[in-house]
Design goal:
Blueprint lengths: L6 H15 L7 H7 L1 H12 L4 H12 L3 H4 L4 H4 L14 E4 L19 E4 L6 E6 L13 E4 L6 E4 L9 E5 L12 E4 L16 H9 L5 E4 L5 E3 L5 E4 L8 E6 L6 E7 L20 E3 L1 E2 L5
Parallel strand pairs: 1-13
Antiparallel strand pairs: 1-12, 2-3, 2-14, 3-6, 4-5, 7-8, 8-9, 9-10, 11-12
Helix pairs in contact: 2-3
This protein binds FE2/S2 (inorganic) cluster.
Length: about 300
């Protein structure tokens, strides 16, 4: 889906193109890959002055691919980085594999694991957390279906709850809904890390801890970039801003006989930076996705 570009957009894109090619104001593509929209906005504001609402929306549109096809002609540096407007027409059912290539079993996923554990689905640029949620004593907690409200517009949707032998396993997008930070900046804080004054990189504020207590969430998903906090025990709803959108969820299916897990869909709001969950990236090449353990952020 793209909106028509106005003459003003084209002129701005041409100016941006010249600026990016200029050795004195060179655009750093590696930093853009790391920082995404944040880097782009900072780059423009540093080199072209303040960014008004129209310009900000135009730049955001570039990052999520709106109008990108036309603008790519002016900005070769961006064209290779903007997610292609490709994708899927429906959600595939794919099995979750461990890094040894064998199907992951629900019973083998540690409860309250602080190590960032992610898998890609349904597109190659859509990482998701896989978490087995527990209480303060590391006993699995049943995650019940719930209604999640989107603070941005007041809309509500159903979160189906957890899966596995204790209904405690959930999967959420690992892309922060504020400005798109990804792991390790955004990660799960298990109950044992829900304290103030812990050694860095813990950056939970008293406001986040208070919101978690009020929501009866023993742990949170927190984005260290600007402090957004989500409640993984209740559909990754928003506990503290600046985000105004919950994390989307991946619909999981658990096969009781084999103990295997499958990703079968996605729900909630669209993944950050994507017009829809099914477009804006390359689909996975196989009928499986590998769950990887990244880093322990604590
Ligand atoms: S990108 Fe996560 S809080 Fe800003």
């Amino acid at each position: 889906m793209s909106r028509p570009l106005r003459r003003w957009d084209i002129l701005f894109a041409q100016m941006l193109s010249r600026m990016m090619r200029n050795p004195r104001t060179k655009f750093d593509e590696r930093e853009f890959v790391k920082g995404g929209e944040t880097y782009l906005l900072n780059y423009v504001s540093k080199n072209a002055g303040s960014i008004d609402e129209n310009r900000r929306n135009f730049l955001k549109g570039l990052v999520i691919g709106v109008g990108a096809a036309t603008v790519a002609g002016f900005i070769p540096g961006l064209s290779s980085l903007i997610p292609p407007n490709v994708g899927l027409t429906s959600f595939p059912k794919i099995i979750l594999l461990a890094s040894n290539g064998k199907p992951i079993t629900a019973s083998s996923i540690p409860v309250n694991e602080p190590i960032i554990t992610v898998f890609l689905y349904p597109l190659q640029n859509e990482p998701n957390f896989l978490v087995n949620l527990g209480d303060e004593n590391n006993n699995p907690v049943e995650i019940k279906p719930t209604t999640v409200t989107v603070p941005a517009n007041g809309q509500k949707y159903k979160f189906p709850g957890g899966v596995g032998p204790y209904n405690s396993i959930v999967a959420y997008s690992a892309i922060c809904q504020h400005l798109g930070c990804q792991p390790p900046e955004i990660h799960f804080y298990p109950p044992q890390y829900m304290k103030l004054g812990m050694a860095p990189p813990s950056s939970l504020t008293s406001q986040a801890l208070q919101a978690a207590t009020s929501a009866n969430a023993p742990g949170v998903i927190h984005c260290d970039c600007h402090g957004s906090t989500y409640d993984p025990y209740h559909g990754a709803s928003v506990l503290t801003g600046p985000t105004v959108r919950p994390l989307p969820f991946v619909l999981l299916e658990w096969d009781e006989k084999t103990d295997y897990l499958y990703a079968i869909g996605e729900g909630g709001v669209p993944v950050y930076g994507h017009v829809s969950d099914l477009t804006g990236g390359t689909p996975l090449s196989y009928d499986y996705t590998t769950v990887t353990q990244e880093v322990n952020p604590f």
